Amino acid sequence: MLGQLMPVTIKEIAEIAGVCHSTVSRALHGNEMINAGTRAKIKRLADEMGYVPSAVALSLRSQKTLTVGIVVTSINDPFFGRIVEGIENVARAANYSTFLSTSGFGEVGEREVVQSFYRRRVDAIIISSLWGDLTLGEEFERIKIPIVLINNQTEGKYLHSVAVDDVRGGEVATRHLLELGHRRISYLETKNRWKSNRLRREGYEKAHRAASVPLDPKLVIPPLADDDVSRGEKALEQLLEAKATAVFCYNDMTAIGLMNACRAARVRVPQDISIVGYDDVELTNHVTPALTTMHQPRRQLGQQAMEMTLALLAGEDSVPDQVLDSRLVVRASTASPA
After folding, report:
1. pLDDT for 118-140, tens place per residue?
2. For residue 219, what is the DSSP state?
3. For the chain, which end, N or C, has fewer CB atoms within 10 Å of the first or last residue's CB respectively?
4. What is the pLDDT of residues 9-30, one digit of tens each?
5. Model pTM?
6. CA dihedral of residues 179, 184, 190, 195 (deg, nearest 10)
7. What domains are defined for the chain?
8. Contact criterion met (CB below 8 Å) for 131 and 106
9. How far is CA 291 from CA 139, 252, 330, in A?
């Protein structure tokens, strides 16, 4: 049976090299008090033995752990996967490790995760979650390590953000339906993402005003369930009662839930009702019909957030917030009204 692999220590290297452990330590850190030949010999021996510096020891010396905490709402939400991928790609290239944790759908969970990361002495925290409102922002300020928020513009000395322009996204999605000839366009709201919901609805309303199309309050459908898919499934009855010919959904999963309900009720998409989502998660191109949606550059959001984090950790004086554009992806779920 193979024995358990144990990490090589400086003491073991010293015994084989025939020097004291302090000499090995100095040589591995490039101390010029040790002659160049001895330094080269010890570094070569350390490589051959598979020596890996202790992260704990390095952090004690540098006061940095080379770790970043990532907070997401849920790993079940397909929106967050590409964001985390973008963060990790940049982090890995900069020799940073990441910790990932979920906050759930509430401020308490987010607060607890951030406090846990702080106790673990991460160098910075990236939050791609639902909350981060003013109350949490004030609390995060007291932590005094860089915190980068994704899709949330809470301001503060220690708070920075990378976000997509949700007002413009809502406007572009709605304008697409208006240009197809729809005049009874519904907006299907969400329950637990208050800020982005408000901004997307603002874009929906802005597009109506620009086209001089009256806004009917009955066409704004409040959330009827907690999770995204159920919210879409339960909205169909109200949409039909409001005589909507098209729907702009808060996100893709809500749109997919609505499409499920349409299929069960024999309501044809897009012949009877056009549907637009938001996010462009991978599933949108594999449902029938393929979903028209607003593409969020999720990997780029993660990359920008980590690059901003590295700039803050490097002590750069000016690290401006970033606002990215979404873009319309037209597929088969939208058409002119019958």
Report:
1. 888 899 999 987 554 445 566 66
2. G
3. N
4. 888 888 888 888 788 878 887 7
5. 0.80
6. 60
7. 10-53 (no CATH), 63-164+298-325 (3.40.50.2300), 166-296 (3.40.50.2300)
8. yes
9. 40, 8, 8
